[in-house]
Amino acid sequence: MTDISSRLDREFLGDTAWNYGAFALMAGTGVILNFFIAIQFGIETLGVFNQIYAVYIVAAQLAVFGIHDSAQKHTAEHHGQEDERQLIARSANLAALLIGAGVALIIYLAAPLIGRIANSASVGHGIAWAAPGLLFFALNKVQMGVLNGERRMRAFATMQSVRVLAILGVILVAEVQGWPGYLLGVSFTVAELVIFAPLLILVRPWQCRRNAAGARYWWRQHLNFGAKALPNGFLAESYLRVDVLMLAIFVSDEAVGIYSFAAMFIEGLYQVPTVIRTVVNPILVRLISSGDRRALARFGRRVMVMSLGVFATTAGLTYLIFPSLGPYFPDDLITHAYPVLSILITGLIVYAAFVPLDFMLMQAGQPGWQSVLMSLNITVNAALNITLIPVYGILGAALATAAAFAVSAVTLNSVVWWRLGMRGGLIFAETRLASMPTQQAGDR
């Protein structure tokens, strides 16, 4: 198992470098995007855009239905088995097509209602323009899952970068053409259309031998795995947006704009350990399948140290640079957003070491328990937000979210100890242990 671990470590470093390059481009583009909207369209439009984005990304998880998690996990598990890989990809695409189309239609029809709930007609109009993108998001997410499972991280990183550049391009066109703020929602649909064909060409899900029995088997596997993984995917993407969604109910669009400006930096910082998680996931599948818990524990601790070090450096630089942005933004935006940023960074630094491994149960074939864990975390997050926002406004949302980050670190360490038998959890995992629990037993 030592040779396997060494080879995985070498590949891991190369994959991580590629994905950090893509992340740097995505983060820079995201900052430019939010700055551009705030300056050219105004703080209120920034609030509208981020509310559209929050609803879109939550709905997107329903559209993909956890099928991408199944595609990623099972592709990694059947590494080198081309016929099986093609069956996995094709059946996953068919499932995503049907479910994604249904969710896209529902969100489109519900857009006016969502606008009324958010007390903003502009939010409703923007969601209607973004809704068609949900179908293509579901299909694209499946292709990305296959690429991740195959560890084709260069292609994965490139497509991630193209997506965010396409969103930025549409918003630049919107400003030149003088479009109203709600039309920025169409950027999500256009971005998914741009990467749709290249992803299909990369994965080629149509190239598999006819095997009706195999196709039915993988269809059932994807739906079963996806149904159990859905709450995790849905809630994981919602985790950093619970505060924005709840603020939309309690405070004005302008206040949401101030908070979402600071939250934009936190979302970017959160991606620092998340990039590592994307690379780590298929490695965890292979280490867990090998039954070498000693190698798994060693690898996990190295990943945690690396994640915390990179995050602390990036967060520190962000915290120091943020005040100098004041002269470039109107209405004392930086002054109002700085306390929010300070609170959120403090909470996230506790969780940063754990984020790369927080899908560990999923990779062990326990999507149901993974969803239970995320449900617990987001319930704590939501409860804290709904308690503190009415009293303290945007500072209450920051305090609630920061506390939820710290709680999530504790729950992840505890559940890995319990479900995977790693005594001491991720921090003090004992290395003298028997084989890993089987995935069949995991979700029973």
Overview of the molecule:
With 444 residues, this protein is mainly α. It has one domain. 81% of the residues lie in helices and 0% in strands. The chain is built from 17 helices and no strands. Helix 2 packs across helix 4, helix 10 packs parallel to helix 15 and helix 13 runs parallel beside helix 16. The radius of gyration is 21 Å and the shape is globular. The N terminus and C terminus are likely disordered.
List keywords for this structure.
disordered C terminus, 444 residues, 17 helices, disordered N terminus, mainly alpha
Query: Helices and strands, in N-to-C order?
Result: HHHHHHHHHHHHHHHHH
Sum up the overall morphology in one term.
Answer: globular
End-to-end separation: 29 Å
Estimated structural class: mainly alpha
Cα radius of gyration in angstroms: 21 Å
Flag low-confidence runs.
Answer: 1-5, 431-442
Strand content: under 5%
Give the oligomeric state: single chain
Overall pLDDT level: 84
Characterize the largest beta sheet: strand count, sense, and whether it forms a barrel. none
How many structural domains? 1
How many β-strand stretches?
A: 0
State the helicity in percent bands. Answer: over 70%
How many helices? The count is 17
